[in-house]
Structure prediction request, 606 residues.
Amino acid sequence: MARAIDNWQLDNKTALNHPKQDTPYSSVWRLLLAYVWPLRLTFVLVFVCILFAITADLLQPYLVKVFIDDYLLAGHGEYRQLILFAGIYFALSLTDFFFTYVQNNLLQFAGQNIVARVRKSLFGHIGLQSISFFDRNPRGNLITHVSSDTETLSQFFSQVLLSLMRDGLTLILIIFMMVRLDWTSTLYCLALLPVIAFIAVSFRSYMRKTYQNARTQISRLVSFVAENLAGMNIVQAFHQQEEQGSRFRERNRSYYRANLREIRTSVLFNRSFDILGNVSVAFLVWIGGKSVLNQELEFGVLYAFITYTRMFFQPISAITQQWSTLQSATVSAGRISNLLSVTPEITDHPEGGKHPEEAVKGEVDFRNVTFGYQEANPVIRDLDLHVEPGETIGIVGTTGAGKSSLISLLCRFYDVQSGSIHIDGKDIRYFPQSELHRAIGLVQQEPFLYSGSVMDNVRLFDETVAKERVIEACRLIGADSIIGRMKHGYETRLSESGSGLSAGERQLISFARILVFKPSILILDEATANMDSYTEQLIQNALEVVSYERTTLVIAHRLSTIVHADRILVMKNGEIVEEGTHGQLLEIHGYYEQLYLHSLGRSKAE
Ligand SMILES: Nc1ncnc2c1ncn2[C@@H]1O[C@H](COP(=O)(O)OP(=O)(O)OP(=O)(O)O)[C@@H](O)[C@H]1O
Prediction:
């Protein structure tokens, strides 16, 4: 039951459309467009702001050119005009600043809004998946999708899209201004385009490699740290600090080197564009200077041209630098799109919700059930079981006998391969999942606690449940004395793994959940951890309270827990091999007796 769904009692109400799997890149971008579309007006506004900002920016050298040629050198320069030009120049700078500021804010808002919606969809979609999905997809991968893949997507909006729009438009407008000023010199500049293309192409694959290498090294480092944190008790118990330290140093060094290599490549790439820009300026000074001296070109035009030439290389360099981000954003968007296209294996039957909701009495029937995690390898075989409402059933068997699998089927974490399971005579596949999950209360072997207060954990963040009800539930199961010893009582904050509480104490909190939410069927996967006799007694008493007039299935690891059960099922290799009360089973001197004696530390011969 270790992988039982965490937010078991919470209904997941997020609905998604599920496109086909193995999404090609065109559909990746189509999917993104679906998120972008509601913000299309914002993007139009961003574009307008960019246009105003660039125009204001590019008009500045032109203004200086007009001032030099038409006023300064033409001898019309007056003090008043000097101030006027300076004023216009300043106003253009302010306009540039204002629209750049608005454009940046709008784009950040749009980007973050889209990424937040993608993250929400991902989280909701993951919550809809069947447990088999979590068997196939390691938790680390899913965390990466929700955190770093969406972060890369956010970079796409804040860097790539911005650069494509702003730098692309700047380039077009610069070329336009250059052609207007002097088209022959423009042709000289454009002749450099093949050189630029050559540099970009030769750097591109190398930059991508260094980028990917740096990402790989950081993933290695992060997963190593995560692994070590998760298994810190083992690391300490086996005195592994030294070994783990040297493995960490190796990974840290690799990341450090990969990062330096990436930065070096990027600096070299930028510098080559700077050099190219300076060469062009030198060339212009030579050619253009000659033309000015021969009075074939106005000095102001040369000034403006040189300024535009310097500006010309910046957007090209900026756009090419976004290449690797664009690549990784495409990969991340592809992964997100693939994840969003996975359809849950277990869904509500279209006819299921049509029947009026009736209170579930708790009668359980397994009819000829066969199931295996791999189809060819059944772990439950042809199993029949009838449980009366209110009956308490103990399930025992050696490890791997199929006890947890039986319970997983009843919770519909997996669907049966053949046969059927019924609650109150109705096939569970016809129950809406939310209704089924409300009818069954689950207390896991390692109960999951949320990071929140004790109160939040018992009422599962449902504010409609009165505090008094929570306190009463805890009192009834005998957890109030444990909670009373906590520093802030019911408001004490528990960490996500419930550290600070023993497995037994965490189970008691889960029992209180049962009393609060009142499911008709209770499933208890008893904690295997050694418990002190006091906690064990508390659990035993709590079980009596919560199982009262409630169908209860207990997977027992300590047989003492279920000696008083109405019926005990003994499982072996996916089948029920013996069935009866404790006394009846001991009388037949079979497998149960062996297990029982073994649990007492005795063998049959004794
Ligand atoms: N998620 C899974 N994917 C594949 N095989 C699984 C999965 N869960 C359990 N199994 C296999 O199914 C068989 C039955 O396992 P199950 O957990 O139901 O046994 P169990 O009686 O509950 O054992 P335990 O007392 O150790 O929890 C085992 O062979 C186990 O390896």
Notes: The two ends are 34 Å apart (CA to CA). The CA atoms of residues 18 and 341 lie 5 Å apart. The chain is about 60% helix and 10% strand.
